[in-house]
From TrEMBL:
This is ABC-2 family transporter protein. The keyword Transmembrane applies. Keywords: Membrane, Transmembrane, Transmembrane helix. The chain crosses the membrane at residues 6-26, 46-71, 98-126, 146-174, 180-201, 213-234. The keyword Cell inner membrane does not apply.
Length: 245
């Protein structure tokens, strides 16, 4: 019962932090766009939130802290001894990671929609020359609907978060040190900010909409990473020792 209350409190704190970070980040983006003569729409806020600075660094740090707290007892000796097999334990962690990623994705989507809706008065204007889409691509597009942006945001965010969640659990699984997991995830975000290795490859940035094939390739890349990490975890399961750790 104590663990349930503690986990519930952590989730509430997580939700407050994510909502606050989303508001502060999008409000700053709105001010910057106004200085540049552009006007943000709700679709632009979804694109902005998916950027490496916010999504890959700020959000993922908060996610990893919550994740490691919620799953901290899953690899303890007493818990492991109750499981039928180590592979089954790892697959349970994968299942939990999927649920965690789904929750995080839906909540981020709701925060972005809620905060963005307060800061703007239109859904999308990518068919106009005064749009940020035109400023980034030098093109206009009337074929892209707001619902398309939201759906792409949901799918790509879920894949990103799931990959990072699985990677966090795999590193924790191998090293038994949560600090190493956190350092690796932060490093991925910082490196990606300067050189595309993950977030900027699996992206809904404006240029991806000009050539949707690149967006599809990013999705395939993300799915490949998910499958690879899952299989590496299964391979390491038979060699994982928990006793005396």
């Amino acid at each position: 019962m104590r663990n349930i209350k503690s986990n519930f409190l952590w989730v509430i704190v997580y939700m407050i932090i994510v909502a606050s970070l989303t508001f502060l980040y999008l409000r700053h983006s709105m001010k910057v766009s106004l200085l540049g003569g552009f006007k943000f729409t709700l679709a632009d806020y979804f694109v902005d939130v998916s950027g490496t600075l916010f999504f890959g660094i700020e959000l993922m740090i908060v996610n990893v802290f919550l994740l490691l707290h919620l799953f901290k007892n899953d690899f303890s000796t007493m818990f492991v001894l109750k499981q039928k097999s180590k592979k089954l334990l790892w697959l349970k962690e994968v299942y939990k990671s999927i649920l965690f990623s789904l929750f995080s994705t839906i909540y981020l989507l709701l925060c972005t929609y809620g905060v963005g809706g307060l800061l703007c008065n239109s859904y999308i204007n990518w068919d106009r020359r005064r749009s940020i889409f035109f400023g980034e691509t030098n093109m206009i597009c009337s074929d892209i609907k707001f619902i398309n942006v939201v759906m792409a945001f949901f799918i790509i965010s879920f894949i990103r978060i799931l990959v990072i969640t699985l990677l966090t659990m795999l590193i924790y699984w191998i090293t038994n040190k949560s600090s190493i997991s956190l350092i690796v995830i932060i490093t991925v975000g910082i490196v990606d900010y300067y050189c595309p290795i993950f977030y900027r490859l699996i992206s809904i940035y404006y240029t991806k909409w000009v050539n949707p094939i690149n967006m599809a390739i990013g999705l395939i890349y993300g799915i490949f990473l998910m499958i690879s990490i899952t299989y590496v975890g299964m391979f390491k399961a038979d060699r994982k020792e928990f006793l005396n750790e």
